[in-house]
Amino acid sequence: MYSIIISAEITCAVFMVITLAGILVSSQKKDESTKFLILALLILLVSLPTDSASYLIEGYENNDGLLKFVALSTYILPNLSLIAFTYYMCALVRKHENISYSRAHVVSIFCIADIILILVKFAQGSLFVVQNHRYIEGSAHSTVIILPIFCLLYLFILVVFHRKSMDLKTVISISSYVIFPLIGLAIPMIFKLAGEFVLVAASFSYGLIYVVVQMNTITDINIREKLLLEVSNKDYLTLLLNRRGYEKALEKLIDVSEIGVFFCDINGLKYTNDNFGHEAGDNLLKNFANILREVFDRGDICRISGDEFVVLLGGLTEEEIGDYAKKLRYAINKNSRIAAFGYTYGKKRMVLELVNEAEQHMYRDKEEYYKTR
């Protein structure tokens, strides 16, 4: 039986090394939760070979002192790991809730009390003894595991209480840290087996947590990439599509048979900048961008240069494009002819030809505007 436990713990130790390396490599900026997870993993990584060593050195002469030290360590290290893990869970919750670490402090107090109890029972000789170079459990063995079990249950209550602050995958993975070790502790008791599988069970839990952490990391990366892509395609002032976004919008219309294009140019932007300042000019641009958003409930609205805007509409009829033109003309006149515009519609025509045609119509509208001034 011991050989199975040793093999399982060594295998888990190798897996924990890989897990720890993965976290260290993938997390460039270590936040609080990552730091506590790394600490908990390091403690477990020490605990696994230590527990294996307690089985391996049994029966050898002149190793009684080492056996006592290793066996005592196997009682203390899980408490330290539990403390680190509780702080890890609280750090996760703190990302979404304004809570203190007082909940983790409670677990720390109980775990430290358990460590003191372990040392007292060890000194009294009731925790375990070494006879004939072999470890024998004492009467206090069951006593010193009561507080860690209580802490695990308390941790489970915290997970349930703060479950809304974590996604479902994280809740399940953290719950496994409570459930798996309890199962690993219960199996030997139920089937009257020698040894315990608590550390092996905890390793499986950490493996599950690592998978969830990586999944969340990938999700965060995808979100950041999406946001960066969106920002790179947006004009910082008007929040419309910029020149890059405009080019991508043109690409989308390559295979569209019916296309409508509006080309707009702000009237008097230079005059506004020169006489009232660039802030007034910026407000003029933002006001016109809002007008375009109100008029066009579909299509791509783009600011392609300082005072030029293009609206691209695909899949509409000529009548629908004409209706948009009427709405835009009304909105522009209502706002003191804030801009000149031209539009065109085409079937199975190159979109850039339509853009150039709409631009020429805009220039004619611009000429009429200056003639009436």
Helix amount, in percent?
55-70%
Query: How much of the sequence is in beta strands?
Result: 5-15%
Spans where pLDDT lies below 50 across 5 or more residues: 191-195
The figure for the number of domains is 2
Distance between the termini: 98 Å
CATH architectural grouping of the largest domain: Up-down Bundle
What global shape is seen? rod-shaped
By DSSP, the count of extended strands is 6
Whole-angstrom Rg: 35 Å
Structural class: alpha+beta
Number of alpha- plus pi-helical segments: 12
Question: Care to describe what's here?
Answer:
The protein folds into two domains: 229 residues, Rhopdopsin 7-helix transmembrane proteins (Up-down Bundle), CATH 1.20.1070; 129 residues, Reverse transcriptase/Diguanylate cyclase domain (Alpha-Beta Plaits, 2-Layer Sandwich), CATH 3.30.70.270. The strands form two sheets. A four-stranded antiparallel sheet has the order 4-5-3-6, sandwiched between helices. By secondary structure, the protein is α+β, with helices and mostly antiparallel strands. Helix 1 packs antiparallel against helix 2 and helix 2 packs antiparallel against helix 3. It contains twelve helices and six strands. About 1% of the residues have low confidence.
